[in-house]
Amino acid sequence: MIVLKSARDIEKMAAAGEIVAATLALLRSEIRPGVATRDLDWLAEEYIRGQGGVPAFKGYRGFPASICTSPNAMVVHGIPGAYEVQEGDILSIDVGVTLDGFVADSAWTFPVGEITDKAKRLLSICREALGAGIDAALPGGRVGDVSAAVQSVTESAGFSVVRTLVGHGVGRSMHEEPQVPNFGTRGCGAELRVGTTIAIEPMITAGGAEVALADDGWSILTVDSSLSAHFEHTVAITDEGPRMLTEPETRPAELAGSPVVE
Ligand code: MG
Ligand code: MG
User: Cα(74) to centroid of ligand 1, in Å?
Assistant: First the structure.
């Protein structure tokens, strides 16, 4: 069952989302060659708790950290640790915050110093796919509209969408119905009614779509070791259209196609 949120609920999610956005901005300013991912995790946890929030991932099904850090061929769910970020890496960071009973969830893939043209294009297309997905999240539409938009941008560019990992409803819990796959058919799937809140999160690769679980029981890696990118926003379906709750200052049209990193 899809749990619809009231306008008041959505404001609470937006307040959680503000902390998520600020955490990602803080981490972006700290990413440089030599920084260990566990230091980013520590910084994020301290910041989130300092804002009165709770890191939503910590302890979730036993996850041991406050954020996920997934470099290069790691798609998602990387556990922060001793890994030191290197020049030329791309690093996906996923942040979830619970505030006043509501969760917001967002992810970003950051370039570390100079990255290859292919990596730049992967990040740019993933971000564009997210923008297209958000633009398609219209009241009265279907989840498939979002899925098809993400898939179309990604595959037109010659990249692959990971099929075994999906976006999701979000609200009082981090994972609610409906699932929001990054592939699908326009006009199919659950209706996007006003008050639906979803995390739209393209996870794409520069190679094949196949992924596998690593030995740590959490990290998901591309099977062909190709680079992977992940961008995510929590979005509310409103009468006026999609509202991003994890980047309140940026409208979807501005997100789509904009540069990889300002
Ligand atoms: Mg996330
Ligand atoms: Mg998510």
Answer: 14
